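re: ur question from yesterday

yeah so i grabbed the chain u mentioned. its 374 aa long if i counted rite. heres the sequnce exactly as i have it in my notes:
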Amino acid sequence: MKFTVSSTALLSHLQSIGRVINPKSPLPILENFLLQIEGKTLTITASDLETTLITSLDVENPSGNITLAVNAKLLMDSLREFSEQPLQFDINEDNLAVIIKTESGNYNFVGQNGDEYPKLPTLGDEANTLTLPVDVLANGVNKAAFATADDDLRPTMTGIYFDIKADDITFVATDAHKLVRLKNTSVKSGLDAAFILPKKPANMLKNIISKESGDVEIRFDQKNIIFKLPSYVMVCRQIEGRFPNYNGVIPQNNPYKLIVDRLSFMNAIKRVYTFSNQGTGLIKLAISDNTLVITAQDIDFSTSAKETMACQYQGESINIGFKAPFLVDILSNINSSDVIIELADPSRAGIILPLENEADEDLLMLLMPMLITE
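ran it thru and got these structure tokens back, copy pasting raw so excuse formatting
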């Protein structure tokens, strides 16, 4: 069986899905890509059992159909060294010996029986279907992913919560220190459903979705989720359990409102943070009439820093402390040139909002304060 394919096109598809492969998989077959040739289409599958990514591309001059598994590391490492050129794959259907032929050489290895590769899970009859623009999904996943937790003792907080209502969809993530809530009102699904997308497939989506356009179809039941993109399919197991009541932790009636240039504020935090206690990352914000003072110190190493910047603020003076890396993460994931910071008192969470939301979006980020001693 033979077929010809572009070296760079093949490598690009393999790299897109190859990140899902666990090099120390309990099933040796999962250290392979599954290659399936049907007609002029090459379908490639990578999986770690929990998450499966599938992509396809066109090939030239196929001489039949075949399914086989090939070692992922061997194939990717070899393709990285080829310049753009057509590669001819010559596969012996009896013993699965593979020869890759180029203009200047031959490369030989042996594949495995593709029938040993795990089958994809099927969804139950109660499965829901949701269709939304790729950019809506991309924005939701990109904005929320950084706020997911790493705590295995609270598994529901290690993923992104998709809260689907009839007239909107809300993407939520929290690690109990920071929270992201992004509501999009352009999606009219007519559904009342929800699921939690685990961190790893969320990061896989971030990598592949930037190359896509059009719509994505999401199908899900109580256990699994299928994302059908124009060039990729991702199947993953969802996190089971109840996501925290995220609206209940967002403080209401915050009397202190500060408006500040986002980039200037973020860069000032980065500079001041260098002089903070690296164990705590604490920076202090002193806010008074149209003035924001950012300070940090590390008593152990006799370092300190202070920056003063202009802002829009009228009201009583307030001092509050935050963990600098968390605040930088939040500001990095807001697109607006200016941000609004809403505060109630130094012991309650701060709300960070874009001054101007994207069309059809309502973005809110929350950050818990740190205790400061005067």
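noticed a couple things. Helices lie at 7-18, 72-79, 134-144, 199-209, 262-273, 324-332. also Residues 2-116 form a domain with the DNA Polymerase III; Chain A, domain 2 fold (CATH 3.10.150.10).
anyway ttyl
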